Protein 1
Amino acid sequence: MRTRVKICGITRIEDIHAAVEAGADAIGLVFYPPSPRYVTIEQAQLLAQHIPPYVSIVGLFVNANANEIVEVLQHVSLDVIQLHGDERPAECQQIAQQTQRRWYKAIQVKPEVDTLEIIQQYQQVGASAMLLDAWHPELKGGTGLQFDWSKFPQSNLPLILAGGLNPDNVAQAIEMTQAYAVDVSGGVESAKAIKDQKLIQQFMQGVQGGSAK
């Protein structure tokens, strides 16, 4: 089975078209104001109109409460919620109950932390998947950094690899980790929040190559 792909941090209609035409499985919209890839509810509504059926719309939130996420859902039909902050398992469970949406949790991989134990904690409260990103002391994703892929855990829960992925290394990353999915943002950009159609196509080719081995 081919590794699934999410193109995250999309802010322009033409970038949605490029991602869909290249075969992306999911589009990520960032609802985190400090991010250079942040979109307002109004922008997200417009972008969502150009995302066809069978391509999932993922909303990324950082330390948002359930009411804030519900407000977005009243205007934007998100398929999945990505919780990318410091949300504890109980908080994620509460958000899921109020939003009635599938969700997954992003965690930053630190060398001294038992990643598998953390994964199990979120799995027990209903996570559909876990996203493993590179650790940064201040930033929440989109850092362009990568962690040691040889430390990528094995789990019966779908695991998503993020952090520092680009067209040149994604095939190797998939071979090493056997991740269920990969998540890319800056690695297919020509500038902050500006996706590059050619880089997206090259990234998808790399995914095909890594999945075939």
Protein 2
Amino acid sequence: MVWHQFFVRLATVAIVAAACRPALAARPLITDDARIVDPKSCQLESWMQFQSGGNELWALPGCNPTGNLELTLGGSLQRIDGGLDATNVQFQAKTLLKPLETNGYGIALSAGLIHHPNAEQRKLFGNLYLNVPVSVSFADDRFVAHLNVGANRDTENNQTRMTWGFGTETALHPRVFLVAETFGENRGNPLFQAGFRFWVVQDRVQVDTTYGNVFGGGTGARFFTIGLRLLSPAFLP
């Protein structure tokens, strides 16, 4: 199957799911970065999250049709009562205010909607969020730090919460990266996550794995992820 047919089918699946998480960076970080997929290209970020409350399968196809606007539409499935249930549907738009440069910094702006189509919330519009990622490159991109500041509008509880995140990427090898982060809101305990990212095919096929938990959360709040990221060459008109 050629690349454009592959991603068109993925986008179709995501749109059907929408009919029936705040901002995400390049897998496996939750803290966003000041990067977007290449102009006229698409990507698929997918992963399994294993946790005590039920395992989740995520798929987030995204494309950059204009050169500086990345659009993402996808969601997650969770096994509940022996069956699969659509637990999250997410749409996000992201643009670069200043592209990230080697040994320099970059700034982006993202906004989106997360809808939880479960039995209790089917009539809710969903949670809106706004995020400003700032990324700083050190040592010729061998170490990159990301800082996020944003807000999340909880429509169910009619509350607005401040969100934040701090993450790092450390190159151990041209194909292997150590990633670590902490993130949260202005209330409740923050979370942390750490793991590895590996390029199977440089700049095209990536796999990753992480371990995470809530600070002070114990074994009941821990989670593990295994992810796959696919990036296409430029093909959009």
Protein 3
Amino acid sequence: MKFHKEGYTSLAVVVLFIFVINALADYYDASDTAKWMLYLFSAFLLITVLQFFRSPVRKVTVDEKTVLCPADGKVVVIEETDETEYFKERRIQVSIFMSPINVHVNRNPISGIVSYFKYHPGKYLVAWHPKSSTDNERTTVVVKTSSGVEVLFRQIAGAMARRIVWYIKEGDAVTQGDEFGFIKFGSRVDLFLPLGTDINVQLGQKVIGGKTVIAKV
């Protein structure tokens, strides 16, 4: 288990905060009860940051015929919908909600070339809101496989999230399972797949990024 690079600043701030409040408690000679409460609060803050920015090492078996889950979380949407930004046609949408306790690393669901990328500033509706996919801060990525299949996926910020991070750009060659981004706090990732795609997950199912097979294409 590694600590994700996106968490270095947050960890430094938390460690500094913990040092300051505990130093003040010692300086003003706080009671033993107050000090123990501060110690427990400090431990809670530190553990929270460490668990949120954890980055597990996962061995991924690349398979061009499958679409892997791009994030840890729970499947909250499986439905046909109109994709209006890139395809401008009907697609099957599969959405994964990432709670604050999930790993927030985002992984490429397929291998191929990034044929489209765009960042959209926006609102911060709760991640499960129906309009979060089109109104919230988000990125849109389309990857084209060697067989010509295009899959669109979106990072969507939630009500608590204020920063989406991505490490890819249009024209990049990406490998299935490799990290392509990170979203801080509660958030969501949407996949848009061709109609007729064999979906391999169910509503409410817990999924693992880079491991769970979402679909076969």
